[in-house]
Design goal:
Helix content: over 70%
Number of strands: 0
Radius of gyration: 28 Å
Length: 297
């Protein structure tokens, strides 16, 4: 099996395609026929999946290789095929999960948009000092180039502006959610166990889709859920699907929290780099211009 390089975003085209696919298969279409019907109006991913289905090849790796929201669909498809789970019903569940992931991604993107846009705008503050200087009747560029104190101010201000931009990007990158689909592992376990396979067989299947060392927490959570189901004598499938939903809900909450923290943390590059750069590139040239004009009227 192909191990997915998971990303959290789920696009509407993929969700719509999988929803239609599940409806066609629930209506009696075979997987290859359903993919072929969709290929007539689908994109490159759908065409590649339809070609694989016609050849009798597992469609899952093709979807996983497409990246993005197709990663989770490909993993769920492959597990369903390997275990014999009903594809139409499984894909309907995948649509619900993808819609949750899409909402998580949208919420986090909206929450991060305001602080990152504000920081990007303020990053140009030092440059705005140049037209301000010309408006006041001075030549800030000429002062920065020709005055003995100008070049050090120009170099230092430029370095600080670049530092502020890199620092801001690093903070924004750290605030983004991890590149994985929240709740994918319990969702895959639920698909496998719903087909009636043993826990050992399901565990073997998961090894093809879960990167060792990246999903240790999720794996431990699945094990705890399986132990609880065994002790309580109840089916683990619904408990696992509940875990998957909780993981997506937690990702949404963590994304919003990270965005709120980002608003505060972005004040650091503003105070340490952007404002000093403004002083060096805008204020000091004006002061030098005033001093030179008074010294040499």
């Amino acid at each position: 099996m192909t191990r997915p390089s998971a990303r959290p975003a789920a696009d509407d085209d993929a969700i719509e395609t999988i929803a239609r696919l599940s409806t066609l298969m629930a209506g009696g279409s075979a997987p290859a026929a359903a993919w072929s019907h969709l290929a007539a109006e689908g994109g490159a991913v759908v065409n590649a999946a339809a070609a694989a289905a016609r050849r009798g090849v597992d469609v899952g790796p093709v979807l996983v290789a497409a990246g993005g929201s197709w990663v989770g669909v490909g993993a769920i498809w492959s597990v369903a095929v390997e275990t014999g789970a009903p594809l139409a019903e499984t894909l309907r569940g995948a649509v619900v999960a993808l819609r949750d992931v899409s909402e998580v991604s949208a919420d986090v993107a909206v929450a991060l948009a305001e602080p990152t846009s504000t920081a990007r705008l303020l990053g140009w503050l030092p440059v705005l000092g140049v037209p301000m200087g010309y408006a006041m009747g001075f030549d800030p560029v000429g002062i920065l180039v020709t005055d003995p104190l100008g070049p050090p101010c120009l170099v230092s201000g430029g370095v600080l502006m670049v530092g502020a931009r890199l620092w801001t990007r690093a903070l924004a990158r750290r605030a983004r959610p991890p590149e994985r689909i929240p709740g994918l592992e319990p969702e895959l376990w639920a698909v496998a166990l719903s087909a009636g396979v043993s826990v050992d067989r399901a565990s073997t299947l998961m090894g093809g889709f879960v990167d060792v060392g990246e999903e240790d927490q999720a794996t431990a959570a699945v094990r705890r859920t399986l132990d609880l189901a065994t002790r309580a004598g109840v089916p683990a499938v619904e408990l696992l699907r509940g875990d998957a939903w909780l993981a997506r809900h937690r990702a949404r909450t963590e994304g919003r929290t990270a965005a709120a923290r980002l608003s505060t943390r972005l004040l650091l590059p503003l105070a340490v780099c952007t404002l000093p750069a403004f002083l060096l590139l805008a204020v000091i040239p004006l002061v030098l211009g005033i001093v030179r004009s008074n010294a040499f009227p």
